[in-house]
Amino acid sequence: MSVAGGVSNAVERAVVHGCEALQIFTKNANQWRGRPLDQSEIRLFRQRIDQTGITPVVSHASYLINLATTFPVLREQSIAAFVDEIDRAESLGLLGVILHPGTCTAGLDEDALRLIADAIRVAFKARPRFKTMVLLEHTAGQGRTVGHRFEHLAAVIKHLRGSRRVGVCLDTCHLVASGYDITTEAGYRDTFEQFDRIVGLDRLMVFHGNDSKRPCGSRVDRHEHIGQGYLGLEPFRRLLHDARFAELPILIETEKTHGAEKKGAIVTDPLDVRNLETLRRLRIG
Questions:
Q1: Domain count along the chain
Q2: I need a labelling partner for 74 at 20 to 30 A (CA). Which of 47, 155, 185, 193 fits?
Q3: Which residue has the higher pLDDT, 30 or 102?
Q4: Which CATH number fits the domain that encloses residue 137?
């Protein structure tokens, strides 16, 4: 949900949509620096989260951050921005910050994965007492992005000596795009058997629930409305009825209705309503 007008407004938008969990950006996702969070807004946000019972709440890190880069200036900017994301999430009492692992700019994937782990280690050392987790998002694998294989996520966690401050976010669109075919019953079963063996289901904290505009193995990240893409409805039905994931949130990142929200008004978005209702029907059906 948008934080236009203040972070607490995201909670109100979640309420009018009947949300049970929430994801926000704590600053503009396409800028390096953001305005400091207002202390009164922080208090109101935390108060409203407690009152509404919405849980968990996570933030998504800026798209500019690349912890895999070998370019010194970009790496310094990325680590500083990443620490700022953690600071903001901690102040708001969030479960964690969802992070795209990064894009390899030189060398092998293995080198990039070590750079990512080193950057996360720097952030943890800078904020040793924080509770906010880092949630590595499995990626679609476009270009030289890393994180599209379960082995990549496991390698980062291993480099961090299995830190319990690190979890995983799985995106249904990214799974299919990267070649994990959860559209069939057998493929769904095999995908999560692999994930459990390589990473561990105990690391899985959050799902991004998105359909895909592109077919399995395309390695193209293009989200589609629930049930209208190459996933269809069945993978979502399986997730919603899988006892292993009963306590995990499914957060949608589907396209918003253009112009639905004007000047920060708290209104329902017809496309959000439709996607959320589709998931609710699958859950009870």
A1: 1
A2: 155
A3: 102
A4: 3.20.20.150
